[in-house]
């Protein structure tokens, strides 16, 4: 099954609650929240108070993507604010296993994120401990960037490892996803797709979301 996670980074922040409700009604499966600190990435976005504000607005799981240095210092705040998933970059974690355990200790599902150039070997020894692996298909920091195709073989490589080991881990893709780029990623074994500009920068969000989802599902038939 293909799940679409609209990224609110591309939403109209002056009416964020309405934007979230609109994509929920349009068939979204998760709400993706991009947290940037101006250090790990060259942009600043939102913190736990936005997660807390959105928690009562939607029944969908809140997928919190931390693009921050020292994520350990903020995990409790994001967990208590209502995050369902917290994903951390392997490139930002000095003690990844500790960070993943910390996320789980608050009853939140942990995931690990790889930048486009990071090899999957960096996460092979954490697979047993995570619920999700997120592949960046743009350099993190901004919405609306172009999909980096060279990430796709890594997705297939990890998907094969997950199958071989019989693990229950979902693969999520983030960056430049639209009804074309979703296809090679779904073929490679990904099941959760973040889409920001391809959904929020359109007139008809429902149609955009459903077209992207249908393109992904066409691969599974
Ligand atoms: O993590 C991100 C950027 O760092 C965003 O989730 C991602 O860029 C989504 O936006 P778009 O679909 O417009 O590429
Ligand atoms: Fe993201």
Describe the protein in words.
Helix 2 (48-54) packs parallel to helix 3 (75-81). The termini are close together. Strand 3, helix 3 (75-81) and strand 4 form a beta-alpha-beta unit. This protein has a single domain, classed as Aldolase class I (TIM Barrel, Alpha-Beta Barrel). An 8-stranded parallel β-sheet has the order 1-8-7-6-5-4-3-2. With 221 residues, the protein is an alpha/beta fold. The chain has helices at 16-25, 48-54, 75-81, 96-105, 152-165, 182-187, 197-200, 205-220; strands spanning 3-6, 31-36, 62-67, 85-89, 109-114, 132-136, 170-174, 192-195. The mean pLDDT is 98. It has 8 helices and 8 strands, in the order E-H-E-H-E-H-E-H-E-E-H-E-H-E-H-H. Ribulose-5-phosphate (5RP) is lined by residues 7, 9-10, 32, 34, 65, 67, 138, 140-145, 174-177, 194-198.
Question: How would the blueprint of this fold be written?
Answer:
Elements: E1 3-6, H1 16-25, E2 31-36, H2 48-54, E3 62-67, H3 75-81, E4 85-89, H4 96-105, E5 109-114, E6 132-136, H5 152-165, E7 170-174, H6 182-187, E8 192-195, H7 197-200, H8 205-220
Parallel strand pairs: 1-8, 2-3, 3-4, 4-5, 5-6, 6-7, 7-8
Helix pairs in contact: 2-3
The chain binds ribulose-5-phosphate (5RP) and fe (ii) ion.
Fe (ii) ion is lined by residues 7, 32, 34, 65, 174, 194.
């Amino acid at each position: 099954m293909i799940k679409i996670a609209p990224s609110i980074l591309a939403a109209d922040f002056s009416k964020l609650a309405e934007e979230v409700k609109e994509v929920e009604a349009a068939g979204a499966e998760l709400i993706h929240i991009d947290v940037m600190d101006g250090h790990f990435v060259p942009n600043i976005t939102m913190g736990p108070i936005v997660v807390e504000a959105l928690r009562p607005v939607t029944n969908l799981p809140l997928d919190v993507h931390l693009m921050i240095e020292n994520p350990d210092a903020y995990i409790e705040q994001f967990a208590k604010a209502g995050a369902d998933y917290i994903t951390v970059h392997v490139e930002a974690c000095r003690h990844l296993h500790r960070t993943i355990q910390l996320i789980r200790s608050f009853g939140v599902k942990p995931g690990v994120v790889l930048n486009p150039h990071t090899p999957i070997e960096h996460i092979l020894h954490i697979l047993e401990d995570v619920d999700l692996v997120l592949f960046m298909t743009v350099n993190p920091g901004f919405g609306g960037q172009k999909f980096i195709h060279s990430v796709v073989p890594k997705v297939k490589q990890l998907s094969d490892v997950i199958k071989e080991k019989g693990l229950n881990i979902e693969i999520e893709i983030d960056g430049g996803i639209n009804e074309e780029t979703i296809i090679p990623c779904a073929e490679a074994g990904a099941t959760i797709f973040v889409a920001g500009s391809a959904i929020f920068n359109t007139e008809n969000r429902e149609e955009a979301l459903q077209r992207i989802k249908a393109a992904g599902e066409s691969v599974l038939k």
